[in-house]
What does this fold into?
Amino acid sequence: MEEKKKKTQWHNLLLLLLTLNIFTTAGAFDYSDALTKSLLYFESQRSGRLPYNQRVAWRDHSGLTDGLEQGVDLVGGYYDAGDHVKFGLPMAFTVTMLSWSVIEYRQQIAAAGELEHAMEAIKWGTDYFIKAHTSPNVLWAEVGDGDTDHYCWQRPEDMTTSRQAYKIDEKNPGSDLAGESAAALAAAALVFKESNPHYSHLLLHHAQQLFEFGDKYREKYDWSLGVVKSYYASVSGFKDELLWAALWLYKATDNEEYLKYVINKANSFGGIGWAMTEFSWDVKFAGLQLLASKLLLEEKHKKHSHILKLYKSKADYYMCSCLNKNTAAKNVERTPAGLLYVRRWNNMQYVSAASFLLTVYSDFLKTSNGKLSCHGGTVGYEEVLSFAKSQMDYILGANPLNMSYLVGYGPKFPQRVHHRGASVESYRENKGFIGCTQGYDSWYAREEPNPNVLVGALVGGPDCKDNFVDRRDNYMQTEACTYNTAPLVGVFAKFSELEVQENVDQGQNLDLVASY
Ligand SMILES: *[C@@H]1O[C@H](CO)[C@@H](O)[C@H](O)[C@H]1NC(C)=O
It folds into this structure.
């Protein structure tokens, strides 16, 4: 009898340990650590005069004469990827997504001790947008150009390439750029509303002017600015950005006029017409549709519920296609190991942006007590969230190569990121000038790992078969962009909160083990 009881006890303990083991493996990723690292990345991308509290120590001041030739102060902002062009459209989208992350997950970010850093990352962008918006209908759109920049491989601190600045204005308008910049500034105004009302008000003022400019002079910015064409052409046009900007402005001001814009132009601007399977720096429809869906939660929007529901049906479509629950042809492809796959070049940007929308959508379903109805079945909020988690876990190392595509996270991550500053020895250590082609000869072509770790960067990632080649010249896979990491800030924050809850549960289980 005694023997049998002991056996049962041991059996139970074993079961418990097994469960714990499964649990530990499943929850093996440290999302708080990932969150901290993702915010560090924005410090690596800083252009301009670095502040005293700069934590990424291998970087130094750069681009200190940006705009000088044109008689305008364009010092600051972010380098967009592995080069040193300051491209307005992707930079603005980066700031919109950082701001949206804070708006949705402020508490979680604060609980992880990262709110200050997140707000600094946003402000580094918005301070620059304010400088670049020199009069109501003038916005400086780009500093440097892709062609001359890519001819050189230099540290930002040594830059000798053209720093020509380009602008949009009444004669050369760009509604997509003005719209996205307005969206970024309006979203950031919400972030700073409580902590810095004066700054928030300033952001809003610029946002409103930029929206007006973009709406009044309607044109695609790459039509006005040939220089962006082969780098960041706005393929989806400007209607998505104008609707998106109007909606962010409505959220930031509560001014009904902006809401009316979103409702009245829903049809003519494609807001309820386009069903999308991509959300990116170019194509905002899915984000707009989700944001519009969330207005349904508030009683005061009841009179617009007809149009808002049409927006929601398109948001649903996007979520269903990510979840593989539309008809087959309308689903987002996946790699054999389950990573969303949109295209070969920098696929991870679509994964991180999709994961953000799925995470926010999951919260929306939970709050509204709703279910997602797809062609292939009905889905609850847990399933949506758990799919987003699968994408995060793939990024952090749950993939066939055991590779974390978030640089600096975990034991194995890309060592040869296609990034000028990271791949050349630090300026802080060696201030000797490194020339344009010298960088290619001495640093780009090296087999060795980069001397500086670009912590928190999300690289382009694997191909459609989960393969990844860690070479500096494999820029489709090893280059990182600011808009890859920005949505991760929100998603990591969400999962870091769940992690804390799980650790509490696990603690209780451990108590149980101890009692044996
Ligand atoms: C990945 O990790 C698993 C489990 O530890 C191991 O079996 C597998 O060989 C690893 N794969 C690679 C490519 O390192």
